Amino acid sequence: MGPKGTEWKEWAKEHLVGLENTLMPSFTTDLRQLDEEGIRWDVQQIIHHGFTSAMCTVESGLTMEENKRFLEIATDEAKGKVHVSFIMLLDSFKKIQELLQHGEKVGVTHATVSYPQWYYPKSLNELYETTKGLCDAANLGIVLYATERFDFSRFHPSSVPFELFDKLVQIPNVIGMKVGFPEPAMVFEVFRRYSETIQVNVGASGMLGMYPALIQRYRVQWAGAGIWEVWQSPEKPYLVEYFNHVLKGRLDEAMKIYWFLARANALSALGGKQQIGGFDLGMNGWAQAKYISWSVGGNGGPVRQPSQALTWRQMEARKALLRRLEIMPREPEEEFFLGRVRYARLKAQPS
After folding, report:
1. CA distance linking residue 98 with residue 107, whole number of Å
2. If you write DSSP's letter for every residue of 155-189 in order, what string do you get?
3. Is the pTM of this model over 0.70?
4. N or C: less crowded end of the chain, CB within 10 Å?
């Protein structure tokens, strides 16, 4: 049972600290069922990396019952060692509310606001009432999302309607806000307006170098959700160490790690540094994200559609990046396509 009312904001100050990673579901090779062992393996990997929270990608082609089971497996395996969250990116508000209520029952701590792709609010008042309804649906911490994905530029040129968020941050169980793209004025406005009230989150990869300034000026303590494995392995947790150094004011140590990542060209991963004002089309590369995770110890395995295809060039680029980071890429790739735990079971069978 989580806190209630305004206690959620105090909970976030104490507990919402560190890097929140992304947790993707694993499937059987025929893609018909969840691979529970694979999901549990990936939760343990998140713990080994030193991440403090795992955001379940419930938008990755699962049925409602599978989503519920996904959350159950994740929270059971986490056992309080990491927080478990999800993003409300489902195809109806009824389903979002149902999953929020289920998440509360099984131990999810927080959820990030999103809307069905078809949703087109006509006014900020309508958008406020809709969002407040999501906040009120369950006793969970709620994270707002500053993103271009929702196409709110008709309400504000930055795509972030500050007039709306000024009201939303006052809702008792709204605990945070993820900044999802690095437009400088928008970033400044979000932190200037809301960092005293909620935990403002730097979640875009293009903002890694801004952590020291944002942490010193606005007391940032949490970042994500992201595919943070792209820059580290459990044995060489560069990004976790970088973030922790910055949190503790050890800026020389932090920047040494940052410039190592830059020399290794790691900061250009996932398609290059984000362009200021670039647009998020909302198309997820689940296969590439799974490959990134697998290459440093994750389960890997097949993904459901829709997803961008994983190419040989992407796999080779990933392996080259890991070598520059002094991390040995995992082999064989046959294991990735089956999933690590399923591959191990097959290899263990007598021939």
Report:
1. 15
2. T-TTS--HHHHHHHTTSTTEEEEEE-S--HHHHHH
3. yes
4. C
